[in-house]
Write a structure and sequence with these properties.
Helix content is 44%, strand content 9%. It is mainly α and 199 residues long. It has a three-stranded antiparallel beta sheet, covered by helices on one side. This is YbaB/EbfC family nucleoid-associated protein.
């Protein structure tokens, strides 16, 4: 019988010792990861605006844990104050990756570099450096005003439909109403008058 199993069968005490060593090493590694996690959860990163009006503190997860304002904020417009808060918060968040990397190096040394790289890359994508030109949301574009409405034109009369006569006039083809007699044409006598004329 060959291989590691065969050696274990020949020396059971040595096999037991190896299993114990592996279990102890695993437990120690778990303890180091637990310590690194606890130390990371205790991290607090604070940044202040250039004039000290705004101070923001965040945890390793980027969540704001404290926000303080100076007396000068009373004279700052709300829009400007909101911009200062966001800028200061991003400055504090940009330090998260570096602080977590220091904790992991302190607690874990050089082990498990691949897992560490994945974690730190994830933090960098969430909380980029404050000097990153892509940091922060893009500025909203100026809204384009809508085009002016087209001038309204009266509808053209449909084909085959006579135009509406002016108000008060008779329809086309009908004599005027109201008893009025149309004027005579000059130079033509009424035939009824000619018969009744005695001369």
């Amino acid at each position: 019988m060959t291989g590691a199993f065969g050696e274990a069968m020949r020396d059971p005490e040595d096999a037991k010792r190896r299993v114990d060593d592996w279990a102890a090493g695993f437990a120690q590694k778990a303890e180091r990861y637990k310590a690194a996690q606890e130390r990371t959860e205790e991290l607090r990163l604070t940044a202040s605006s250039s004039d000290g009006t705004v101070r923001v503190t965040v945890g390793a997860d980027g969540v704001v844990s404290d926000l303080a304002f100076g007396a000068k904020t009373r004279s700052i417009p709300p829009e400007e104050l909101a911009r200062m808060v966001l800028t200061t918060m991003r400055q504090a968040q940009s330090r998260i990756t570096g602080q977590v990397a220091e904790v992991m190096q302190e607690q874990l040394g050089e082990e498990d570099q691949e897992t560490r790289s994945l974690l730190l890359n994830s933090l960098r994508s969430r909380f980029p450096d404050e000097d990153d030109p892509d940091d922060g949301p893009p500025e909203p574009a100026d809204p384009t005003p809508p085009p002016p409405p087209a001038p309204s034109t009266p509808p053209a009369p449909s084909a085959g439909r006579a135009a509406t006569p002016p108000a008060g006039g008779p329809p086309p083809g009908q004599p005027p109403t109201g008893g009025a007699t149309p004027p005579r044409r000059p130079g033509r006598a009424d035939p009824v008058e000619d018969d009744n004329t005695p001369w």
